[in-house]
């Protein structure tokens, strides 16, 4: 009662509770009450050892979006991931290298031959490759076992308004139609995992440069409102993307739509190179997109220059040489980076999962345990 129609600021959590005492509150204290989540802790996830059962947690954020999670507190476990349209495995890099989450298995669906070469070189033995997303059947999903997290971003070429030759996402021959493969897999996994009493998380990404009717259609089939986040909040690059999903607290990240980082392009350049601008536009498969007018972003020895591929890697949040080492050309590497996720953006979205799933042990912890 008394909840504003358009809540602002901190999250408000509507909690349906059943079970024993939880964090000092009895059932009578919590039932149908409103909890001010100033600490940004997700109710139900900060005490996995508790025997309490939450039937549901509905979270309303400051952007007037709403999502529901089915929550059953369990002992923390390793994370099982299915990544569709996996590309250069940005999701695996974020989860393991940036969030330090212990990955039990990482299933990847990808068909690009250059991306597959990079996956094999960079993540040898850590990825189980499933091939074409269109060949993932209900039987295969059952064979994969439990999936905790589904991620993916289908090709945006025929969804973007800048492509005047684009076809409808409802055209089976269009690459935009692959969205329906994601939705089919998401819905299947969600029914099965939630029925088992375990949490199931999903994240879908695509360009923000789409017509309103396309955005509306995607939102309808996803069953979730998008959160738009610009990479400029993390790196000096104006790259806006839409994200749909049920990751805890992601709705509150809409404040990152127009924020800018204190970093400048110069901070990402190799030695003896000078930035002509403080930031760049969107990194895509076309490096000319980073020019402002006819001016290239960098000057070296008095001559204007495009960004080096290592500099693009840094802008996208990857280590230098992340796309190197498997005989890919500079053009091929740039195209892979242009189709990938900006790592710090996705790390910010997926950050709450580090509170839910096991963390990898550090070398020091492993050594102490062995002793």
TrEMBL record:
GO CC aspect terms: nucleus
Residues at the active site: 156
Keywords assigned: Methyltransferase, S-adenosyl-L-methionine, Transferase
EC number annotated for this UniProt entry: 2.1.1.37
UniProt GO MF annotations: DNA (cytosine-5-)-methyltransferase activity
Keyword Transferase listed: yes
Similarity comment text for this entry: Belongs to the class I-like SAM-binding methyltransferase superfamily. C5-methyltransferase family.
Name of the protein in question: DNA (cytosine-5-)-methyltransferase
């Amino acid at each position: 009662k008394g909840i504003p129609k358009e809540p602002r600021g901190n999250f408000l959590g509507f909690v349906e509770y059943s079970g024993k005492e939880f964090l000092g509150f009895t059932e009578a204290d919590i039932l149908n009450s409103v909890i001010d989540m100033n600490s940004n802790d997700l109710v139900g996830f900060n005490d996995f050892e508790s025997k309490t059962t939450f039937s549901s947690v509905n979270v309303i954020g400051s952007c007037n979006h709403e999502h529901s999670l089915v929550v059953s507190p369990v002992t923390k476990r390793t994370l099982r991931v299915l990544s569709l349209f996996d590309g250069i495995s940005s999701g695996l890099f974020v989860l393991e290298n940036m969030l330090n989450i212990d990955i039990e298995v990482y299933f990847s669906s990808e068909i690009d031959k250059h991306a597959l070469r990079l996956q094999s070189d960079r993540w040898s033995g850590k990825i189980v490759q499933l091939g074409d997303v269109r060949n993932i059947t209900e039987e295969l999903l059952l064979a994969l076992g439990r999936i905790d997290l589904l991620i993916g971003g289908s090709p945006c070429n025929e969804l973007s308004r800048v492509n005047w030759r684009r076809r409808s996402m409802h055209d089976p021959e269009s690459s935009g139609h692959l969205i329906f493969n994601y939705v089919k897999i998401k819905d299947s996994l969600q029914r099965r995992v939630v029925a088992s009493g375990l949490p199931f998380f999903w994240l879908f990404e695509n360009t923000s440069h789409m017509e309103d009717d396309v955005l509306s259609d995607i939102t309808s089939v996803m069953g979730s409102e998008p959160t738009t986040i610009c990479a400029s909040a993390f790196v000096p690059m104006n790259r806006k993307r839409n994200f749909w999903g049920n990751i805890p607290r992601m709705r509150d990240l809409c404040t990152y739509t127009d924020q800018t980082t204190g970093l400048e392009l110069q901070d990402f350049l190799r030695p003896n190179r000078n930035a002509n601008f403080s930031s760049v536009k969107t990194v895509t498969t076309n490096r000319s997109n980073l020019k402002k007018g006819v001016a290239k972003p960098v000057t070296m020895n008095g001559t204007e220059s495009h960004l080096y591929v290592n500099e693009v890697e840094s802008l996208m949040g990857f280590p230098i040489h992340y796309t190197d080492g498997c005989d890919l050309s500079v053009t091929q590497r740039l195209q892979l980076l242009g189709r990938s996720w900006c790592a710090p953006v996705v790390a910010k979205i997926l950050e709450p999962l580090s509170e839910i799933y096991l963390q990898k042990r550090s070398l020091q912890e492993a050594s102490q345990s062995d002793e």
